[in-house]
């Protein structure tokens, strides 16, 4: 069932807002992680870890979930479909993977933030910053962004079959 | 509004038509993408087997082994100081 043009534009606007917001907050999160990694000041490191935890749970997780959800609605509510085009399938897989890893990783961030509030000196600085997971996540999100912008050609076998069925139905 | 929707649907149909005409099999970019993804998965497996990538077992993210998993971010936020001076 395809959405009306007005509804499609609304969902598209929401999807773009959530998705671009997700990319932006991950970049901000990385800045906090770099501060935690490189700063020698105890308050800065503690503040960075606290900010990473709050940003992660209250901003990045909701944005990721909303981006995934609105992406599903966009695919299912338009003729693109969810499994007809390779770029849609890959976007879905990468976004789902990124969201799953985010949800699994955030408890670790909370643990590290708890440790950071009480640690001192060498044990505090040994925590480093949380750079690997968000760094890889950012790369994945940028790949998804490129796929969504350029929409490289390629129908899946399922998509080819559905296309032929529709053309046959129109011809008859 | 109907014209806009019709234009969108026509654009999508044209895209699908080009896809069907241009791709007799799996597009090259899909094969390259799949190979890169497979290589990364294999790299991850090798790193795990050699212990280089750190502990990615059940205990890393889920707090298993009898420990309660870490809760959300509200526990250690101190209450604001109220100045009565």
List the helices and strands and how they pair.
The complex is a heterodimer of chains A (172) and B (85).
Chain A: H1 5-38, H2 42-76, H3 86-118, H4 121-125, H5 132-150, H6 157-171
Helix pairs in contact in A: 1-2, 1-5, 2-3, 3-5
Chain B: H1 2-22, H2 28-50, H3 58-62
Task: Tell me the fraction of residues in β-strands of chain A, as a range.
Answer: under 5%
Helix content of chain A: over 70%
Distance between the termini of chain B: 63 Å
Detail the poorly predicted runs of chain B. Answer: 62-70
Largest sheet of chain A: none
Number of strands of chain B: 0
Low-confidence stretches of chain A: none
Mean pLDDT of chain B: 64
Task: Tell me the radius of gyration of chain A.
Answer: 20 Å
Specify the structural class of chain A. Answer: mainly alpha
Largest sheet of chain B: none
Strand content of chain B: under 5%
Description:
The complex is a heterodimer of chains A (172) and B (85). Chain A has helices at residues 5-38, 42-76, 86-118, 121-125, 132-150, 157-171. With 172 residues, chain A is an all-alpha fold. In chain A, helix 2 packs antiparallel against helix 3 (86-118). Chain A starts with a helix and ends with a helix. The mean pLDDT of chain A is 93. Chain B is rod-shaped. The chains are: A mainly alpha (172), B mainly alpha (85).
List keywords for this structure.
A: 172 residues, mainly alpha, elongated, B: mainly alpha, 3 helices
Summarize the structure.
The complex is a heterodimer of chains A (172) and B (85). With 172 residues, chain A is an all-alpha fold.
